[in-house]
Amino acid sequence: MAAVAQPGDAPLRIQTSSQPSSSAHPDSPTSSPSPNSASRLILVQEDDEFRDSPSSVPQFEEDSDEDDDDDDGRSSHDDHFISQDHRPLSPLRTLLYLIAPALRLGAFLLPFLSSTRLAITLPCLLVSVLLTALVRHIWLLLARYVKRATVEEVCSEALAKMSNSPGWRGFIKVLIRVGGTALAFLISLVYLRVAIISLLPLLPESPHMRPILAAIILFLLIPLVAPPSHISSNLLFATSLTSCILYVAWFSVLLHSKVVDSLTYDETMRFVGISGLWDSLTCSLFAYGSFSPLQLYVSLSAHRTPTLGVATRMKRRTSFTVLSLVASIVSLAFTLPLIFVHPPTEPLATSTPVDDTLPKVLRALRALILFLSIPEVFTNLPFLPRIPASFPLPALLRRPHPQFFPRGLLLILISFATLIPTSLSYILSSVLLILSIIASYLFPALLHIIHHNLLRPTAIVVPASRSRAHLMAGDGEDDSDALLFAKELALQRRRFGRRVMWDIAAWALLAGAILWIVGRIVHWWWL
Length: 527
Description:
527 residues; mainly alpha; 2 strands; 58% helix; membrane; transmembrane; transmembrane helix; Amino acid transporter transmembrane domain-containing protein
């Protein structure tokens, strides 16, 4: 009989060694081993590659000193980890979802930075790519450290321990869901508005063309985003892949237009009304920023874990860290040339007819890319409150998934919001820039600091219920407990240097994000 103990990030297995089993002694009974057989603990060392493998993350164990159950008695892991994040995702799809966020609205803003000095724009672009890769790894380390697979769980582990209130953990989860819903709403709103404005010059002029176009796009989006789809769904993969292919086409047409000097003034991006350092830094950070990659990370880990639960070694060439680096390089390759494009910043005063075929193609491709990007944004949307049974709703609308109707209402609200005036749209776009950068860069750095600097450190191999006094007191297991504690100290010393390095990076990221927010608000309000 063998028992495996995995407290925290356990790098070893504790097995119980007993006398030979009945199969070695034919005369012994086969039903059960001898009750007088002596047993002892054997510490089996695991190799570093297996211990540090991301495939161990799906095998999360609940801490013995914490109550993570929700009000209904079910474990939070059963609600968020097993039912949603346990679906496997291949490395190819993971790489696609890591690249796709950088090939959207943020990339469309980069050509308009060409009026800024290249000595400012180029460093901002490179720093943004490095910060994005850094933040992805911080999320990965947080998931391993707290043994949680969703943003809600990671945040609740960090913030719920700072208060003894019993309902604080649930309040934190609700707050994270509201924030995630608001951010997804703003991103979808700006995407849809820019797509509509891009298509308007291609259609006949009419005062009713914008609401008609919004209604048509709403009709096309409902079957794509109203039914909740997981990151591993084929429909989401098809829309994301098509979006990336269309971006490559847009990228090629834009460079060709630059070569043949056929670029024209484009008023779609007029909400980018800042200049100087904050303009370049803001657009660069927004271009590469994205939601938390925990869903991708856990799904990729589930792809490496067989159904029977036996962990397998992850190949280094397809690990999440390697895929993140490859995604950063590919994203940079398809966005860096954009800062060398110089589109006109105002309409050209000329009587000579200009061939506007390529500008129309660019507008159409941009609208299609943003349209196909909305389903992936809705994938990161948390579960919305269900419609009460007492609400007068036809049975036809209650038959689909419970999230179908709330998501449909949210999509209708987004479509109506696209009709707001341009002045209000500028404010919403600025709010989106600030919130997205806070969620992408400041938030993970703050969580890292809370977990590693403000809360009690988590043991690696020693169970949290065992204190040092208990280990050293001697309760009949002096040898095994002392060995566990010595192993704990050795692992803590070995990881101390890396933890200090990541602490410095998190503090620097937090300070830079706060400085950016203060400067952005000051520039927005007073300059």
